[in-house]
Amino acid sequence: MQWTKIGTLNDIPQRGARCINTPAGKVAVFRTANDQIFAIEDHCPHSGGPLSQGIVHGDAVTCPLHNWVISLKTGEAQGADEGKVTTLPVRIEDGKVLLQLKPAEMMANKELA
Amino acid sequence: MAEKLVVIGNGMAPGRALERLLEAAPDRYEITIFNAESRVNYDRIMLSPVLSGEKKFEEIVIHGDGWYIKHNVMLYKGFKVTKIDRDAKIVTAEDGTTAEYDKLIIATGSVPFIIPVPGHNLPGVLTYRDLDDVNAMLIAARSGGNAVVIGGGLLGLEAAAGLSDQGMDVTVLHLMPSLMERQLDPTAGYMLQKAIEQRGIKVITQANTKEIIATDDGRGIKAVKLDDGTEIPAGLVIMAAGIKPNAGIAKDAGLETNRGILVDKFMRTSDPDIMALGECVEFDGNVYGLVAPLYEMADMVAKSLIGEETDGFIDKALATKLKVTGIDLYSAGDFADDEDRQEIVLRDAANGIYKRLVLKDNKIIGAVLYGDTADGVWFFQMIKDGTDISEMRDTLIFGPAFAGGAAQDPTALVAALPDDAEICGCNGICKSTITSAITDQNLSSLDDVRSHTKASASCGTCTGLVEQLLTLTLGDAYDPTAIPAMCGCTDLGHGDVRRLIQTKKLKSIPALMQELEWKSAGGCAKCRPALNYYLLADWPGEYEDDSQSRLINERVHANIQKDGTYSVVPRMWGGITSSGELRAIADVVDKFDIPTVKCTGGQRIDMLGVKKEDLPAVWGDLNAAGMVSGHAYAKGLRTVKTCVGTDWCRFGTQDSTGLGVKIEKFMWGSWTPAKVKMAISGCPRNCSEATCKDVGVICIDSGYEIHFAGAAGLDIKGTEILGHAQSEDETIEIIAALVQLYREQGYYLERIYKWAKRVGVETIQAAMIEDNENRAALYDRFIFSQKFSQQDPWSQRASGKDKHEFKPMATISISQAAE
C-alpha cells in the first residue's frame, strides 16, 4: 500500500477536520488540540452524517446530525451507541500529511450501510 | 495584608458562606475556623441515612481536609471557643489557643433541648445533633434492646426509623396529640402515626415524660416513666424534643440576644465587626432549623464580607420533607386554621393518600401532602410565587397534570405502559430498556439516563416521560430539582458556570476549563458551544469567537441537511422583499441547480440542497443583489414577522411593518442562548401571530403592547405581557433590554419562555418596566455588544474567510488510489 500526500498539517484547523475526495467516498482527516492526526471515513455509522463537520473534542468527534460520538482512534461509536467507521492510516512527515487508502474496506462498509 | 476573618463553628451555614466568599474574593481574608466537633464540614441533613445504614460518613462530607488546605484556611478541629474579647478583638478556645480577628462570624448552631426530668443526665441518654450522637446510637443499637425516642418531630421520627432499621425495639413519645404538629395538620399526623406503627415502632401521643429510671447499679437506664404511671422499658433514650439557638458565647460577650443572637437582615449583630448566621440567630422574632434559609443567610454574609450590596435576608415560606424511606410526606407554608382561610382537601384513606391546600385570597399559603407528594414542588412554587389560583381552583388539588386540562395522573399513565412501549421516538428506546438501565447501572438523574440509553437525548419531548420513569423506579431517591450538571465534563450546572465566569473573570475556554476543573481534556460537543456563547455574551469585544466550538450550522452560516447539503435563507427585513431580490434568488437557484425553494414560517425564502462547496459563491451572488445572511441557522435573532399595518390594512393602528424592519435592522447579528423569533401585529387581530413568539408586539391605538415568552414548537404557549410602550423608540428600548437580560441570564439552548419560567415572569417585568435605570443599563450593554456582531458573515466568507471550510483538502483520483 502506498502513502499519498494530501496536504500539510497547517491546512487543517486545530480541533477541526478537512475532507478528502476519494474514489471510495469521502475521507475526513482530523487534527486534535495537541496536533495528533486521524483519518476516518466521513460517514457516520448511524445515518451517514458528515463527521468532518462535527465538533472535535479530545480524540473524538460528535456527529453534527444526531450527536453520536465517534472515537477517532478506533472509529467506534462511544457510549450507548453501536457502530464503527473505517479508520485509515495517516502520518505526518516534514509537516506533510500522508494518507493510505483502503478502498476495498470502505466500499464494503458502504454496502452494509 | 489580608484582613483576619475568624469563624466560630463549622456547620453547613458557615461552610456555604466561606465557599461563596472564596469564590468571589479568594485572597481578601486570612481565615481561621474553630470547630468544637473534631471533624470537617459535613451534610447534617444526611445524618439520618447514616444512622439507618443507607450512607457512610464519607459520603456526606461537604468539604474534605483537602478543601481547607487548598484554600489556605486554618481549621482547628475539636477546639471549642470559650471567650470573645470584643475590645481586643481576640477569641480564645478552651485550651488557651487564641486568634485575632478583624471580622468575626458566630455560627454556633443550636443545642438540643433537654427535658429536665430526673435521670436526664444518666449514661444512655443521647441527643441527635451530630455524628458523635449517631456513632453512639449505632454502638448502642448493636446490642439491640429497647429504645425510647422523646419527641415526635422530624428529627425524632428519623432517629426512631434509623434505630428500628438497626434492629432495636423503638417507642416514640410525643407530648402533643399528633406527630410533627408544626409541619402537619392532625389528619396527616394521624396517617403518619399509622405508617410509623406499621414499621413496628410504637407511638404514644400526649405522653408526658416524668422520669428516666436508672438501672440498679446506676450505670445505665432501665425505663422511662410517664406521668400517668406507665413504664416503658428502655436501654437507650434519645432526646429529640426540639432545639434552641446556641447563643451562650455571644451573650457572654455582651452581644444583644433574645432566644438567639439578634441579627439584622444583613446578619450583623449589635457589634458591627461581628456577624452571626445559622441556627444560633434570631431574625425578626424567628429562629431557624431548616437548611434553605440558612443557605440564604450564608449568601448575605459572604456578600457583606466583600462589600457587595444586597436587599438583605427575607423570611420565606419553607417546605419540609420527611427522610424516612417508604413514607411520603411533604408540607409547606402555613396551614393553621383561621377565619379568612379556605381549604381544599382530598382524602383517599384506603390508599393512604391525603392532600390539603390552605387558601387565602385565592392564593395557596400552605400545603400538606401525604402518600403522594409528587405535586409538592409545584404547590410550593405557587406558594412562593403567590400565584392566583382562581382559574384552576376546580382541579387544583389534582396537581399540575390537571392544570392543563389533561385527565390522567402522568406517573400512573407511565406505570401502566407495557414494557415494550416506545418512550423515546428519536432513538427508539422502550420503557424496559430505560427502567433496567436505571436499576442495573444505578442511574439517578436525567442526564445519567441520557448518556447511558440516549432516551430523551435528542429532541427532548419525552423528557417528562423519562423523569416519570425515574420517579417510578427510584421513588424518593429521585430528586428532579437537583441541579443537573452541564454535561459529563463537569459537576457544575449552567447557572454555576455563568456565575463563576463573572466572579472569576474567566475569559477563554482553556482558562475556564482549568479554573473550574473540567474533567475532560477538551470538553465535549455539549459544553463547548455553551461556553463559547457565555464568553461571547459576557465579554463583548474582548473574547474572540472560537469557531471550532461552534456547531456546524453556526460555523458555516447555513443549515446542514440530512444528506450533508445546506440550506440558505437570505434576510428579508420584516418580511419585505422586492422584484430585484426575487430575480437574484431565481438566478442563484438556476445557476447552482438548487433543487428546492420554499417559504419559511418566518416570512423568508429558503433554498435547500446547496452543496457546501457552492456556499461562498451563492452568498457572493446574493450579496451582490443587496441581501445578507438571514441567520436562519443561529442561536440569535432569526426573523421579525410583520403584517402590513397602517400601510395597507383598513384595521391597522400603527406601522407594524416599519417597526418590524427597524427592530430587525437594530438587533440582527446578536447571539442569544437559543433562537429568538419575533413578530409585530398592527392590530389585536394579530395576523402576524405575535402572541406565540419569543417576543411579540401588538399595536393598539394608544401605542404598543409588548409580549414575550411565547412558544409554538415542541411546546405551545401563549405569550406573557411585558408592558406597554407609547412610542416606537420606547418599544425598541424595552425589547433590546429584554433580549440583553436574556443574553446575560439564559442557559445555552434555553428559549425565552423557559428562561422566564425559571427566573419568574414578574422578576423580568420588574427589571424591564419598573426599574428604568436597570433597563437603560441593559439597553446600553446591548448596544455595546452589537458593535462587535453586526458584520455580515456571508460577505466575509464570500470574500475568502474560512476558505478551508468549504473546499476539500485534496481529491485523490482512481489511478492514485489503485497504485
In the CATH hierarchy, what is the architecture of chain A at level 2?
A: 3-layer Sandwich
Which runs of chain A of at least 5 residues are low in confidence (pLDDT < 50)? none
Enter the CATH topology name of chain A.
Answer: Rieske Iron-sulfur Protein
In CATH terms, the superfamily of the largest domain in chain B is: FAD/NAD(P)-binding domain
Helix content of chain A: under 10%
- Give me the secondary-structure category of chain A: mainly beta
Main beta sheet of chain A: strand number and arrangement?
Answer: 4 strands, antiparallel
What is the CATH domain class of chain A?
A: Mainly Beta
| Chain-averaged pLDDT of chain B | 88
What is the spatial order of strands in the main beta sheet of chain A? Answer: 2-3-4-8
Give the termini distance of chain A in whole angstroms: 25 Å
Oligomer: heterodimer
Report the major sheet of chain B. 5 strands, parallel
Written as H for each helix and E for each strand, in order along the chain, the element string of chain A is EEEEEEEEEEH
CATH architecture of the largest domain in chain B: 3-Layer(bba) Sandwich
The largest contact between protein chains, plus residue counts on each side, is: A-B, 43 and 37 residues
Q: Kindly report the spatial arrangement of strands forming the biggest sheet of chain B.
A: 5-2-1-9-21
Q: Globular, elongated, flat, extended or rod-shaped: what is the shape of chain B?
A: elongated
